[in-house]
Amino acid sequence: MSMMGELTYFLGLQIKQNEEGTFISQTKYCKEILKKFEMYKSKEASTSMGTSCYLDKDESGKEVNQTKYRGMIGSLLYLTASRLDILQSVCVCARYQSSPRESHLTAVKRILKYLKGTTSFGLWYPSGDEPSLIGFSDADYGGCKIDRKSTSGTCHFLGSSLVSWHSKKQACVALSTTEVEYIAAVRDGIFYTRVKGADIVLDNDIWINVAKVPVLENSPIVPSDFAHFNKIMVYQSFLRNPRQHNARLLED
Q1: Which 8-state DSSP code applies to residue 213?
Q2: Phi, psi (rounded to 5 degrees) for 86
Q3: What is the pLDDT of residues 19-55, one digit of tens each?
Q4: DSSP helix/strand/coil, 233
Q5: What is the rounded CA–CA span in Å between residue 118 and residue 116?
Q6: For residues 150 and 172, what is the distance between their CA atoms, to the nearest angstrom?
Q7: Beta bridge partners of 137
Q8: Total domain count, the chain
């Protein structure tokens, strides 16, 4: 093993270190994507996806080049290694890779326009930060207009440093907002089985109340398997302090 000096670049990640902390970004890779897909001279967008944008299969829409569309999605997915802010938008667009339409391509280009104005964004890890783990979990309710499935979103902080995040459509259709939150928390809880003793923050007080009471068989609120799992997580202190966050959650 030989010492090659201070690490500054690794698998597309640019790393800058100083006494105050470490900054990780993909600025160079981001600019390469913009040039590759001829979006470097495009106008900037303030967000990666509009609030009124609801994508579906759009079977009557104009077809676009599937190879190019998949290439754009693949490039953007790699960028999410340091860009949590585009994760949800990219994952939504990735659902239509089998038969992309012009509306889907427009949504992807919106993400690229957003990146044009935020190429320098990245992750900051301050030195001397308090190493306490806390997770934020949330989900929409029936967000997918095609199959009415919901999407879970979680992020985990070690002190003030973001260390893990994901956005994923749930595998089943939930029948209530509490059930949606429970499914999301179960997926988040699996992560915590590897790291015992962590706080979790949600915005659903019903979930918190159900998680803390004795296990109920055949609960009409949430599936029994999910209920059992979350209660065990609480009682074994994997989820040390499930609590409600009244302000807007970070994962939102």
Answers
A1: S
A2: -110, 0
A3: 889 999 999 999 999 999 999 888 999 999 887 778 8
A4: helix
A5: 6
A6: 8
A7: 154
A8: 2
